[in-house]
Acyl-CoA dehydrogenase/oxidase C-terminal domain-containing protein (Gandjariella thermophila), 84 residues
Amino acid sequence: MIVGKLLASETAVDAALAATRLLGARGVHPEIGAVQLVNDALMTLSPSGTSEVNRKRIAEIALGRYHAVVPPWDEQQEREGIMG
Ligand SMILES: Cc1cc2nc3c(=O)[nH]c(=O)nc-3n(C[C@H](O)[C@H](O)[C@H](O)COP(=O)(O)OP(=O)(O)OC[C@H]3O[C@@H](n4cnc5c(N)ncnc54)[C@H](O)[C@@H]3O)c2cc1C
């Protein structure tokens, strides 16, 4: 699951940036460009762990050293006064 998320989000960002580059100046055109694709792809990077953290988790799982210690997201948000 973690590997799938990592590959999917990194590939989405790479593909969206490639599309933007491929289109040249049109790539950043608000109507025909790929800027929205880049934005959508970037939105997938943080949820369910950033790529850096997921690479670390994958290494820890492979080494048998993974222990989930992070509290649920809604608890973190509430503690930081972001939600609730
Ligand atoms: C649109 C959106 C929806 C979300 N939905 C959910 C949800 O439904 N449920 C949920 O649980 N969470 C959700 N999240 C939270 C998301 O999981 C966190 O944003 C993500 O895990 C990163 O945590 P953070 O924002 O606290 O950044 P931080 O952990 O502060 O990370 C900041 C930077 O430091 C790097 N970093 C942090 N620790 C390490 C490390 N040990 N080694 C190397 N680099 C590190 C990160 O890669 C990142 O570049 C959502 C986030 C977004 C943006």
Observations:
- The mean pLDDT is 90.
- The first helix runs from residue 2 to 22.
- The two ends are 29 Å apart (CA to CA).
- The pocket of flavin-adenine dinucleotide is lined by residues 43, 46-50, 52-53, 56, 73 (CB under 6 Å).
